[in-house]
Amino acid sequence: MLSLELLDLSQNNLSGEIPKSLEALLHLSYLNLSFNRLRGEIPTGGPFRNFSAQSFVSNSALCGAPQLHIAACKNRTKARRSILKDVIPGILSVILLVTSISMLILRRKRHVEVARETTLWPQLQWRRVSYQELLTVTNGLNESNLLGSGGFGSVYKGTLSDGINVVIKVFNLQLEGAFTSFDTECEMLRNIRHRNLIKIISCCSQIDFKAVVLDYMPNGSLEKWLYAQNFSLNILQRLSIMIDVASALEYLHHGTEIPIVHCDLKPNNILLDADMVGHVADFGIASLLGKGDSMTQTMTLATIGYMAPEYGTEGIVTRRGDVYSFGVVLTETFIKRKPTDEMFVGETSLKQWVANSILSGAIDEDMKLWIPIYLGQRMIFLL
């Protein structure tokens, strides 16, 4: 266990203090204890000297050094009024952490290939990838490797020399805004980490060529699963994916030191891994909110039908704009109707159509089994 390099116990509802015994894990290079209920002082010895505030996000009762941007610890003699109150939760947390670490080690033994990829990820995050290597893994940017095209370029599939499947997003530098989009996406993805956000592996930047190398999502986009032939999602799958997206937005808006607004949330930017877990992608027009700011402005427009009215008319970027887009995507995911559908013209909006469809029963067949009359009336009221 002393040779452990990676430890991710985020979102596990852990409580108590962080054991100082973890300072003995000198090889630990990555730690994520975010979104738990941990309390007390963050250890300062051993590998903890190198961890940033991102390792402890959303643990409001933690205290520690000023560089972690959290509350300073109070005098220990005043804080320890009851030995049992402090010691017992600490012992329980140690047991829980040891159990979790043991389970991780056991999983690594049973799934060697998965463990190998997990171990390599921190190195791959900063991996140097040359233009020539990207040409090789995509067969010269051949159409047979082309997955699709977006607003600023094309997306290809490739396999790195160590066998890891990746997606290479090549920017069309002839398009206005492509340089800015590349810089924004690299900067955003290098500084955020969440299980529901697409993982960046590397960036390749030359004068006449710029590309981002990302983790490959084998099940493609939510857009495909909603509208392509021979693809379908049941209600529980749709709900699970929307929860994944909501978790990603919560992290972007509240889990980083400087809030991030995605600005272009839509089904095509929600990718699904082998387990159908949703990952938010495409940060090409994302914006950072300054400390204490609730809004900023931009001249870059998002996708029509998904952007908030104030974004489209005045370029105002707020976290509420992402929430608006999420509401549109959420509705679209369950009714399988695009907000730009030609049926929504004149006075008929997506919202009005949903309300009328619930009353008349003219909705997705899967939804009929899940919306009793009384619940449908409540949904209309909320709309």
Automatic annotation (TrEMBL):
TM stretches of this protein: 87-106
Cellular location(s): Membrane
Residue ranges constituting the Protein kinase domain according to the UniProt record: 141-383
Residues reported to bind ATP: K169
Coiled coil region boundaries: none
Keyword annotations of the record: ATP-binding, Kinase, Leucine-rich repeat, Membrane, Nucleotide-binding, Repeat, Serine/threonine-protein kinase, Transferase, Transmembrane, Transmembrane helix
InterPro entries: Kinase-like_dom_sf, Leu-rich_rpt, LRR_dom_sf, Plant_receptor-like_S/T_kinase, Prot_kinase_dom, Protein_kinase_ATP_BS, Ser-Thr/Tyr_kinase_cat_dom, Ser/Thr_kinase_AS
Gene Ontology CC annotations of this record: membrane
Chief localization: membrane
Family annotation (Pfam families): LRR_1 (PF00560), PK_Tyr_Ser-Thr (PF07714)
Keyword Repeat part of the UniProt annotation: yes
Recorded superkingdom: Eukaryota
Molecular function in Gene Ontology: ATP binding; protein serine/threonine kinase activity
Protein's UniProt keywords contain Transferase: yes
Stated family: Belongs to the protein kinase superfamily.
PANTHER family: OS04G0122200 PROTEIN, PROTEIN KINASE DOMAIN-CONTAINING PROTEIN
Official protein name in the record: Protein kinase domain-containing protein
